[in-house]
Amino acid sequence: MHVLNKVVKTFPSAQLPSLSGGLPVEVALIAQLGHGSGDQLFESVSTRQRAHESFVDELEEPSARLGGVDLSRGDPTSLYSFVVGPRGHPFHRHAGHRVFTAVSGSGGAQLRFSSASSAHIERDPQSFVDALRFVNIPPDCLFTVRFGGETWHQFMPLLPRSRHPAFFALSCHTNELGGALPEALRSQVLANAATIPALTELLPPKAIALLEGALFNPAEVPTIALALDAPTGSLQGALCKTVRSTAGVLRGLMQRWRDAGGFHTASDRLHRVIALNAPPAGSLLLQQFAAQAVHHEDCFGLSIDARESAHKTASALLAALLEGFLQNRPIGVTRLMSLRNVLVRPLGLRRSPLGCPVSSLLSGSQTCIFAQRYPVIAQLNNAGDTRAEVILGADDKHLKFRSCVSVEITGGRINFHLGTRVQCTNGFGRFYMAAIDRVHRRYVAPTMLMLAVDHVIQGALASDAMQETSLQADAMV
């Protein structure tokens, strides 16, 4: 087969015309990444993708829908992440147009396309093989791909029996309703419930048999090899592949041992935590250590519009807030508690993974239970269910603490409060409180309250989204 190397000054690219009259396939290399970064990024993205709420693992193409359609606002686009592992995936096609950006694994990737139509394949399955074209992507490369609907495609590692993944990608479906969708699938898209597997049509068995037959030789398929560092077939290119392959194995293994989570930091002036001079009037916190010395006292408040919550009673809001303390923990507070637990372990002090103001939620005590789940020391709920509060706390060798968590609905607003009183029982307790006072007031308590309230708000947003999806589905019936 004739080989021609051509030097280009811009992004190396390939354009494959459609033999059926459709849109061409367009592939472009964008950048060469660090040695072994492709495998590392694959492992990192795969871990995060598996934890996503929309994760689907079918057809050797694990994926997650990151953004669905919003047809009520005229937006038919959607965004997916997907990965293709060392075994590749089967030949398939989609009805609609596709655009994706990807990073190849540290062994490179091969993109296989055929523009044969269904009618051509039905008349002569060999037409599928005749229309085959391959594009080779080097290791650890950022690249883009665009092709029209009805284009058959298969993505594989560059070398057979490779231990490296093919790539991970972010795919934009420019029109989720594009192409000739079956009515059931169209209804699924309208309900914002589509998945990549659902939108996939596998290659007919007649064509598959040809690909698996003894007469098919992949080396005879017309192939375009794109590269950035060195031309394909050169000594420099071979050495680069060897180094990247070795580095990819090591960096991929290291990434598997690391936590692939992320962080979400937001500054919101509308939901600002305010330090209060004293607990609200009538607070249960005022009754704690009332006739005894109090060595530390604080109280923080946060107010939101009542329309931001799906809960309409104070008791329901308080239950959601307590759940927020458990489920939406600040990562910084968690790490500080881990450090504290190590330092106080030799002293035999009480330890907890949860921030101290609400750590007794993990106590397991059944003496007094709020909302049939949360262990508390005391609770209060007024007759109109517009105000609810609980007392949390515990006694330790060096101090006793009581925290009050409260919710009040008034004047179209919801006011959340978290306050704490501490009574030190010895000199070490006073030293301990002096050491943590600043970080507790400025970071621990306000951040815990802010994220717990955010959990309440996000629960309301999720409920609204479910209701909107249900209404869209009902409208189709």
Explained architecture:
By secondary structure, the chain is an alpha+beta fold. Helix content is 30%, strand content 26%. It contains 9 helices and 21 strands. The strands form 5 sheets. The protein has a 7-stranded antiparallel β-sheet with strand order 1-2-9-6-11-4-3. Strand 1 and strand 2 form a beta hairpin.
Major sheet: arrangement of strands: 1-2-9-6-11-4-3
Q: Kindly estimate the percentage of residues that lie in beta strands according to DSSP.
A: 25-35%
User: SS-based structural class?
Assistant: alpha+beta
Mean pLDDT: 89
- Total number of strands: 21
Oligomer: single chain
Order of helices and strands: EEHEEEEEHHEEEEHEHEHEEHHEEEEEEH
User: Shape, please?
Assistant: elongated
For the biggest sheet, the summary is:
7 strands, antiparallel
Please describe the structure with a list of short key phrases separated by commas or semicolons.
477 residues; alpha+beta; seven-stranded antiparallel β-sheet; six-stranded antiparallel β-sheet; elongated
Compose a concise summary of this entry.
This protein is of the alpha+beta class and 477 residues long. It has helices at 37-50, 118-123, 126-130, 183-190, 205-212, 235-257, 314-327, 331-344, 427-476, and strands spanning 13-16, 25-32, 63-67, 78-84, 92-93, 98-104, 109-114, 132-137, 141-147, 152-157, 167-173, 201-202, 223-225, 274-275, 296-305, 369-370, 374-375, 378-381, 387-395, 399-410, 413-424. Helix 1 packs parallel to helix 6 (235-257) and helix 7 packs across helix 9.
Question: How would the blueprint of this fold be written?
Answer:
Blueprint: E1 13-16, E2 25-32, H1 37-50, E3 63-67, E4 78-84, E5 92-93, E6 98-104, E7 109-114, H2 118-123, H3 126-130, E8 132-137, E9 141-147, E10 152-157, E11 167-173, H4 183-190, E12 201-202, H5 205-212, E13 223-225, H6 235-257, E14 274-275, E15 296-305, H7 314-327, H8 331-344, E16 369-370, E17 374-375, E18 378-381, E19 387-395, E20 399-410, E21 413-424, H9 427-476
Parallel strand pairs: 8-13
Antiparallel strand pairs: 1-2, 2-9, 3-4, 4-11, 5-12, 6-9, 6-11, 7-8, 7-10, 14-15, 15-21, 16-17, 18-19, 19-20, 20-21
Helix pairs in contact: 1-6, 7-9
